[in-house]
Amino acid sequence: MESNRKDNPRTHYPSIFNDVIGPVMRGPSSSHCAAALRIGRIARDLMDAKLEDVLVEFDRHGSLATTHTSQGSDMGLFAGFLGWDPTDERLVESSQELQAAGIQVQIKITDYPAVHPNTYKMTLSSGIEKHTMTAISTGGGAIEVIQIDGCEVSMSGDFYETLVYVESDAERVLNFLLDNVVAGDIQLFEDSDTQFIEIKDGHFLEQETTAELCSKYQVKSIKTISPVLPILSSQTNEIPFLTSNELLQYNQGKDLDAEGRCACCTFQGGRCEKPAAN
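and the corresponding structure tokens:
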């Protein structure tokens, strides 16, 4: 349950590299293999790369129940648990390498209210901690983490994410961060036995800030989740147009062609001398 957020909710602008051009990857499927790897990478970061046991549940009525092996979902997910890239030539060996790393993975086909056909519901364990995480593959290698430890979140892998887990005083920690950290987004999430603050930004929290946090408040742990998409998002992006109508309005008085050049010249070694429109 989300209890507090900044007054400027995040606006997501599509990126031609993240949302249009598919990822550089090993096949067979970007939706299954590359997306699964990205989900696995985020799960690995949530556990500080100390994975020992993983339970993966696929909805009986979803697409992954019958395709997770043939379409490369297992291969990609296991590679993500190992911290590999989608271009790693060892991907086909990820199952064997996972066993060699001492990570036990159990896959179950179960009935649960999955919100998307490509839903990965995971329980992640090590000798010292346990977390739950649910993520979806939305197509073309794009992903979204929609639940962590019982709290509804939204992570697309396009920010550096810092999660600050606290024992108590969550509101005070949130106010400290809002007063002392300039970030793209800062939110507090609470469940019956979990409190954590998510900070989205172009970098992780500074060491001085984390040190001050730990000295002033009862911080249980701090998780750093690296971006998995090629292009980072930003709260300060200014987009000149999003639709074709907005593009035409943007071009009024500029007389630009589809390549951004002035229509009266070719820019071959010279400059356009056409007077600027008033």
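(Above: one complete record from the training split.) The first helix runs from residue 16 to 20.
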